[in-house]
């Protein structure tokens, strides 16, 4: 019983130390992470999801909005967007 309590205590302490280490490492990595996010295209975080109501039956326009293509896109572009 006592050995179980000690093992649990050591596990919690190890998790705490690991968490502190991760937080300190993230503070040192913050400039690099910001630089990476700034180098990504704006469209990656523009909330490109279609935020609107849908019709009971999906229309071609709605499908194009979900896939992020033009409603007049050819089949190849639609396939590429679907993948």
UniProtKB/TrEMBL annotation:
<dbReference type="GO" id="GO:0030150">
    <property type="term" value="P:protein import into mitochondrial matrix"/>
</dbReference>
<dbReference type="GO" id="GO:0001405">
    <property type="term" value="C:PAM complex, Tim23 associated import motor"/>
</dbReference>
<dbReference type="GO" id="GO:0001671">
    <property type="term" value="F:ATPase activator activity"/>
</dbReference>
<keyword id="KW-0812">Transmembrane</keyword>
<keyword id="KW-1133">Transmembrane helix</keyword>
<dbReference type="InterPro" id="IPR036869">
    <property type="entry name" value="J_dom_sf"/>
</dbReference>
<keyword id="KW-0472">Membrane</keyword>
<keyword id="KW-0813">Transport</keyword>
<keyword id="KW-0653">Protein transport</keyword>
<keyword id="KW-0999">Mitochondrion inner membrane</keyword>
<keyword id="KW-0496">Mitochondrion</keyword>
<comment type="similarity">
    <text>Belongs to the TIM14 family.</text>
</comment>
<keyword id="KW-0143">Chaperone</keyword>
<protein>
    <recommendedName>
        <fullName>Mitochondrial import inner membrane translocase subunit TIM14</fullName>
    </recommendedName>
</protein>
